[in-house]
Write a structure and sequence with these properties.
This protein has 13 helices and nine strands. The chain is α+β, with helices and mostly antiparallel strands.
């Protein structure tokens, strides 16, 4: 067995289309992981299972690009948090005005709307919410005094479209519509044509005003949510979580699990097998019998038992995968070592009195490197799919949004039976694509390590 240079590896890859495809896919996955680390705040990842984080998002909404293929457009879920602010005074009255504009071009009514705010005030200012429709009609929605306070303090509140005060105010303006408003929701009235209960398209302006005598009053946080059934590039799940965040964060997690397990397993297997093969006799016999014991253990059932009884931490799972991953590599490394140790350069090193450790590390292991690279590439998808399988069975670490954990949540909430395909297909595709990338690279490296496999 002869050593292979880096130049020969690059040359072989340049001639192999499958190898090039694997490198391109892996580069995209690595680039995505870097972008995730840079642009998505770590707090988003930490709060994956925090319901309060996702309260503003819609439940089980489809991706927004679905509208490209539909004749009747589904309303997109809009989160408006950048209002046009105007503060002014009329005589002794201080007025704080926040305006939210939305272009509504859909064929169905919104599912709801929510105004969320934090105000800092004293006494009891008046909060008023109105909406200006595309046809020029202004509807008065909400008017109430905030809780009275003698000191300057903060007040947080959410105003929902289901609020009885909004419904009552709209019914008082029923003369502006030519149909009955009975049994209609607030959003079905606000976004409706006047002559018939169908969506009115155009620009809507929600106007929020806070009236008070104290000039120091202010609205420190203001957000308008127009509920819809389409959101983001990947949609949302039953827990309102943005699936794009889970899919993107799953990429570096998958690469971490796959590469750490593969590297550790191959290194341990090479060292163990090469040393056993070189030493031979009783040392070889004893080491390989121990290897056979581990090899005979059913890995997946054993991992399930360990996850249930010890811990389902992702780091513990990685450790378990390392323990079971090196035994197969050790067997092959041992058989290759038996062939290499009878070569002249190994026997010469032995006659010169070099220590066994030095002979294994300097003369035998370098000859196994092409096989090691191929083994690492092929071991990565095995580790990723094993983690995904355990997570799908509910034995993964729920604090990490891995692709397997996303599929587990989809299964728990019956996504398949309910037709929520956007919750199932993307993580499945990502697992398949990542596995294929390393299989393509591994097959190319295997051809380099064993030229007889060339067609």
């Amino acid at each position: 067995m002869t050593s292979i240079t880096l130049k020969e590896i690059i040359k072989e890859f340049s001639k192999n289309r499958i190898g090039i495809a694997g490198i391109i896919i892996l580069s995209i996955l690595i680039f995505t992981s870097i972008m995730v680390a840079i642009f998505i705040p770590i707090d988003t990842f930490k709060e994956w299972n925090n319901p309060e984080k996702w309260i503003s998002y819609p439940k089980v909404s489809v991706p927004v690009w679905i509208n490209l293929f539909l004749n009747e457009k589904i309303p997109e879920h809009k989160i408006l948090d950048n209002p046009n602010i105007n503060n002014y005074r009329i005589n002794d009255l201080s007025i704080i005005s926040h305006r939210f504009g939305i272009d509504f071009e859909y064929d169905f009514f919104p599912s709801d709307f929510i105004y969320e705010f934090t105000s800092k005030y004293s006494e009891s200012p008046l909060l008023e919410i109105n909406v200006m429709r595309p046809d020029g009609i202004q509807l008065k929605l909400y008017s109430t005094s905030l809780p009275i306070t003698n000191s300057y303090s903060n007040h947080n509140e959410r105003v929902f479209s289901t609020d009885e005060l909004i419904r009552k105010n709209l019914h008082l303006q029923s003369n502006k519509f030519e149909f009955s408003l009975i049994n209609l929701s607030s959003q079905d009235i606000i976004f409706s044509k006047t002559g018939i209960n169908e969506p009115l398209k155009g620009k809507y302006i929600f106007l929020i005003k806070l009236y008070g005598n104290n000039e120091a009053n202010q609205i420190t946080y203001s957000k308008m949510i127009i509920g819809g059934k389409a959101f983001g590039i990947m949609g949302t799940d039953e827990l309102r979580r943005d699936l794009a965040v889970g899919i993107l964060y799953g990429t570096p997690l998958a690469l971490f699990i796959g590469l750490v397990v593969a590297l550790a397993s191959v290194i341990m297997g090479l060292l163990y097998g090469a040393y056993a093969g070189y030493k031979g006799k009783k040392t070889d016999e004893g080491m390989m019998r121990f290897n056979d014991v581990l090899y005979a253990l059913p890995a997946l059932p054993f991992l399930i038992i360990l996850s249930v009884t010890i811990s389902n931490s992702i780091f513990v799972m990685v450790g378990f995968l390392m323990i079971f991953g090196w035994v197969g590599v050790a067997k092959i490394a041992r058989s290759m070592s038996l062939q290499i140790k009878i070569k002249g350069f190994v026997e010469a090193a032995n006659m010169m009195g070099q220590k066994d450790r030095k002979i294994v590390l300097r003369h035998i292991l370098p000859q196994l490197l092409p096989y090691a690279f191929a083994s690492i590439a092929i071991s990565v998808p095995a580790a990723i799919t094993t983690e995904a399988g355990l997570s799908f069975l509910g034995l993964g670490d729920p604090s990490f949004p891995t692709w397997g954990q996303i599929l587990h949540d989809a299964n728990v909430y019956g996504a398949s039976a309910r037709g929520l395909w956007w919750w199932i297909i993307p993580p499945g595709i990502m697992i398949a694509i990542t596995g294929l990338a390393f299989v393509f690279i591994g097959n190319t490296l295997e051809v380099i390590a064993n030229p007889k496999l060339k067609r």
